[in-house]
Amino acid sequence: MIGTIYRGIKNIYDVRSGPDEIHECRIKGKKLKSDPDSYNPLAPGDRVEYEVSASGTGLITSRLDRNNRFARWNRKKESWQVIAANIDLLLAVISAKTPPFRPRFVDRVLIAAAQGDVPASILVNKIDQGVDSWVDSRIKVWENLGIRVLKCSAESGEGMEVLLKYLEKKTAVLFGPSGVGKSTLLNKLIPGMNLTTGGLSLKYDRGRHVTNFGRLLDTPWGGHLIDTPGVREILVRGIRPEDLPHWFPEFENVPGKCSFQPCSHKHEPGCSILKAVEDGLIDSDRYENYLRIRNELESEVR
Ligand SMILES: Nc1nc2c(ncn2[C@@H]2O[C@H](COP(=O)(O)OP(=O)(O)OP(=O)(O)O)[C@@H](O)[C@H]2O)c(=O)[nH]1
Ligand SMILES: [Mg+2]
Ligand SMILES: [Zn+2]
Fold first, then answer.
1. C-beta of 126 in contact with ligand 1 (< 6 A)
2. How far apart are the CA of 145 and the centre of ligand 3, in A?
3. Best of 155, 173, 184, 205 for a ligand 1 pocket test (most atoms within 8 Å of beta carbon)
4. Does the domain spanning 241-301 belong to CATH 3.50.4.10?
């Protein structure tokens, strides 16, 4: 049989092959388990081949080729964790004020999505708490790069219709820090959905990590939405430091050439990127993020 992974907890996977056909499955044999690409061989959205015994237990025999996959580097395991596979859209979800708006986190998510061949958009939730002008101007920076940014409030309902329309027919994954409202949004978007949601830690202005496993959800419009656990950080990996500029599209079109070749765009005299930052053609906060990521990648290579 062929089915889709809905969720996996401790090596037991919910696989669906039809509206009423759900099977709890384990992975058969070692081949699939030892995927060199990541430490988890299967993620929500994966298509698998499986067999069900007379007693009803399922065994996954292989994974079909993926169209794409969104993954996150796990620092402790030093390996990729695949969050979702075969998706039309990654929504980087962030809140406008609490937990704090984190544009550099979003920039990293955009890179990770592009690495996995996943189209990405940004969703700013909790606009009922107000949107500061610096937040709005950072949103403009993304929009000028051609990235779609949606704003909404799961609480007040503002922007929810546009969001629903945008998601129609798509299989999309919601990804972001804990407490930004991913599960709350899904409860509003899918009638009858009752995912657990949680408050924020007062002391740290952070979410409480309420959702603890990724989960594919059916929607009335035929597409799917994937809820994921909030993450504290997202690391950029798998890019050579000298290739990093290619992941910042605004670096590609700056006027002039750097005097030194190759140029790290960090400090070289006559650097066209530094000049563009000075002239306001490149956003200084995005550039600051470039420097940080570049330094991380360089210390990784060493
Ligand atoms: N003011 C306001 N609060 C919201 C909004 N959306 C969600 N919240 C609240 O934010 C808190 C966290 O929401 P969750 O949906 O649990 O957040 P999450 O992103 O799923 O968090 P994790 O599962 O930990 O990753 C809850 O108390 C929600 O009621 C919103 O639009 N406005
Ligand atoms: Mg959640
Ligand atoms: Zn340069």
1. yes
2. 20
3. 184
4. no
